From TrEMBL:
The active site is a redox-active disulfide bond. Residues 5-325 form the FAD/NAD(P)-binding domain. Keywords: Disulfide bond, FAD, Flavoprotein, NAD, Oxidoreductase, Redox-active center. This is Dihydrolipoyl dehydrogenase. It comes from Falsiroseomonas oleicola. The keyword Flavoprotein applies. One of its GO terms (molecular function) is dihydrolipoyl dehydrogenase (NADH) activity.
Amino acid sequence: MSESFDLIVIGAGPGGYVCAIRAAQLGMKVACVEKRATLGGTCLNVGCIPSKALLHSSEHYEETKHKLADHGVIVEGVKIDLARMQARKGEVVSSNTKGIEFLFKKNKVTWLKGAASIPAPGQVTVEGTTYAAKHIVIATGSESIPLPGVEVDETQIVTSTGGLELTKVPGHLVVIGGGYIGLELGSVWRRLGAEVTVVEFLDRLVPGMDSEVGKQFERVLGKQGIKTKLKTKVTGATKAADGVTLTLEPAAGGAAESLKADVVLVAIGRRAFTGGLGLAEIGVALDERGRVVTDAHYATNIPGIYAIGDAIVGPMLAHKAEEEGVAMAEILAGQHGHVNYNAIPGVVYTWPEVASIGETEEQLKTRGAEYKVGKFPFTANARARAMGDIDGFVKILADKTSDRVLGAHIMGPDAGTLIAEIAIAMEFGASAEDVARTCHAHPSLNEAVKEAALAVDGRALHI
């Protein structure tokens, strides 16, 4: 047996590296296993961070070419330098991953480089060397779900990884899946000049979000030039030198049709990645979707082995994994780590952005809850008008009796930032009245949140 640790975390994504750092802060001797050449996992290397870099760059291009003239700023001869755009994305990724490496050194977290397996409880093997660990945390993240009949080659048929690395703007990009990842990358390439079609099996985009938001979102994206084919499934793909031909069928059954694309992005979701760890051999329980089964304190059925993040049940979001990483470390240190799963925001970083937290109207109706609704449009918000970004609205759902905020759904400029106000309100059990009576700066986008809170009680001021 080689070196011994209080904690070995397997995986250095947002959940894993945060867990490792927090545990080290709490006085544990910690190691973190990562097989990539850089830290940060999918999020920092091929997910959240590079996609946001490209989204931001493409937004600048879109604004310069189509919107600045409205502000009296005339720019002629606008063109894309895609190689530079991609290089900048790489620089952003590198600075973030190197930042995690610095934090490991600062907090004395040992980076064990290579793939890990768990030969027995209390043991982790990395590249032929076995280490002892009092506690083991599985934080191995997730991978793209494959689609039968559509074979990914990361060139013509790509996952989000390949979709971030295209060296030229495709003539026609077909996105399979109308969720966060597909719509964000579809927006990038649409802004840069591609024709984009989104094919979704269900009857609306972002199906996990509030249906009213989904319907309005579809209309806004349509105005931007993104086409949608809802209630449609993709049953096959044929590749040729000049592109890919997809076979589409109505979800409810019916005649098939063909759709030609230069590049196809498969974005139908993600699944837990736990392969190669040897979990079955040591008896760690997995559920029907391959996720590690844990209790409320992230413990598996095998003493000393825990799991967090995308590897377990719950939304596959980097910030959810981070919160679990902190809670996990604090639980192991004898503290009372806790995550409020009712107050985890989700954001689609298109423009306008779409953000959601808590329950949707559909969920409230399903459980028979009595609730009130307050809505306020950005067309009536002074700052949004000054910016020229008036698409969307804020919607707040509150308990009919107690007025406690149960959920909020925002489509509009900087929705991902605005939702944080509601996250804090929900974390502290605030009412819509509490939000409404909080002074908001003028003119600000946040005033739309205040007005929506006022609207819960039927007394919005500016509509």
